[in-house]
């Protein structure tokens, strides 16, 4: 049975307490600090207003940490990813989600933290917001990096360069920015079999669910009490099912 641990608190604070070289992969979906073209839009709007369609039926709570400007985001993410680099074993991969606004600064941050940037995996969303007079916002992105060289001998997988899936709907949607289970199940394969996956921004636990379902272990950190509770329930449910 795969093991999991979920820490409740600030990622940058708690990452310092974890042992060096203790994880095989980092797969995470940080607050994008995006969704607004101006400082006023970015800092005054709620996360629901930024990332959820106006006709959405759910009433999921907002989350903190989403009002940084580009320089603040670069500095903060470089520190977070620097700690993740310390925790990863040599050759370990990093996957980090971003939207179109944050791809450049996220690539800067991961390289500043020591990771070797390997490319971008587009995430196609069949159900996505329309944009009047322009193109549907049907893609977000996953930046891929490694700690040193790619360790293909330990994990000789051939993964697609594009993943597809729409965010959960109805009762299955438990977080404003929850990623699809089918997308996470594909991405989790970047971690060596039976390895340990770290997610410092656990949210509702989708990375951990994919890790446990695939026989991998999981270490997560989540700032929000509400979402940490949701993640614990989901992780415990997967572990019980696997047993």
From TrEMBL:
Q: Which superkingdom, per the lineage?
A: Bacteria
Give the matching InterPro entries.
DNA_methylase_N4/N6, DNA_methylase_N6_adenine_CS, RM_Methyltransferase, SAM-dependent_MTases_sf
Q: Which residues form the DNA methylase N-4/N-6 domain?
A: 23-150, 169-231
Enzyme's top EC category: transferase
Provide the alphabetized UniProt keywords.
Methyltransferase, Transferase
Q: What is its EC number?
A: 2.1.1.-
Q: Which family does it belong to?
A: Belongs to the N(4)/N(6)-methyltransferase family.
**Protein name as catalogued:** Methyltransferase
Organism placement in taxonomy: Bacteria, Bacillati, Actinomycetota, Actinomycetes, Kitasatosporales
